[in-house]
């Protein structure tokens, strides 16, 4: 047996990058996984195919977690298809750095709607189905402690996620539902390629600074989330794990 046998997990924003790696890691450890996507159906289906080819169970479900009805429908799809819910990973997020002079209302609302409201709405929907031993893992960012220039809005959203994690850990503890947060440092993903970070001076700085001396890979995060989702972490709640190669 593997440590997540019999468990059902929903991973939001799992069509690529860190989310895809998390979905695959949970499936490798035995969980049935709902691979959520907002727009990239092909990406989500590719993740599902990889999981099923390895002998796991997974389905792809579209849904914008910043929309309450769609967040509820996502969770209901998991319960309807697999019969239960044990793990929620709030990974959906956007990032677009902007100098303070360039911050707009649209920029602010897009980030806070997806990165913060999405966490609240998905958790609200999932909490109705999670039972004793359930686990919620929120994905934040090491940017909260590093505070890079031009990231005021993005870093603000992730600071909110950290605070929400602590509150929900206390709120859901009487039901024996654990809530933790993982804060990745620089990770090479489709998103960091698209943003122009990979191959830039910024990447060189991110790689040079951590004591472990390399960029992160999505699989580096997947294993940590799988641990927090499992009963191996049954005495861990309200905690932040910073996965940044030692960068502080």
Automatic annotation (TrEMBL):
Keyword Flavoprotein in record: no
Gene Ontology MF terms: oxidoreductase activity
Annotated InterPro entries: KR_dom (IPR057326), NAD(P)-bd_dom_sf (IPR036291), Sc_DH/Rdtase_CS (IPR020904), SDR_fam (IPR002347)
Record keyword Oxidoreductase present: yes
Key words of the record: Oxidoreductase
Pfam families membership: adh_short_C2
Domain Ketoreductase: 7-192
Family, per entry: Belongs to the short-chain dehydrogenases/reductases (SDR) family.
Protein name: Oxidoreductase
């Amino acid at each position: 047996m593997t440590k997540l046998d019999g468990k059902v997990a929903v991973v939001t924003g799992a069509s690529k990058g860190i989310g895809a790696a998390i979905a695959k890691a949970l499936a490798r450890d035995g969980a049935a996984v709902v691979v959520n996507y907002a727009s990239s159906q092909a990406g989500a289906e590719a993740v599902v195919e990889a999981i099923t080819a390895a002998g796991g169970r997974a389905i792809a479900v579209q849904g914008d977690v910043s929309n309450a009805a769609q967040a509820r429908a996502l969770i209901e799809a998991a319960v309807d298809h697999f019969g239960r819910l044990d793990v929620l990973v709030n990974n959906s997020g956007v990032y677009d750095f902007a100098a303070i002079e360039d911050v707009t209302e649209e920029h602010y609302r897009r980030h806070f709607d997806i990165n913060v409201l999405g966490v609240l709405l998905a958790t609200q929907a999932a909490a109705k189905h999670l039972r004793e031993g359930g686990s919620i893992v929120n994905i934040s960012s090491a940017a909260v402690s590093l505070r890079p220039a031009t990231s005021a809005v993005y870093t603000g959203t992730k600071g909110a996620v950290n605070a929400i994690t602590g509150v929900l850990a206390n709120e859901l503890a009487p039901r024996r539902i654990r809530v933790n947060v993982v804060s990745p440092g620089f990770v090479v993903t489709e998103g960091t390629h698209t943003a122009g970070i990979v191959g830039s001076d910024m990447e060189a700085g991110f790689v040079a600074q951590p004591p472990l001396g390399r960029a992160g890979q999505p699989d580096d995060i997947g294993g940590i989330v799988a641990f927090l989702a499992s009963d191996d972490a049954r005495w861990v709640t309200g905690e932040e794990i910073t996965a940044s190669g030692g960068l502080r």
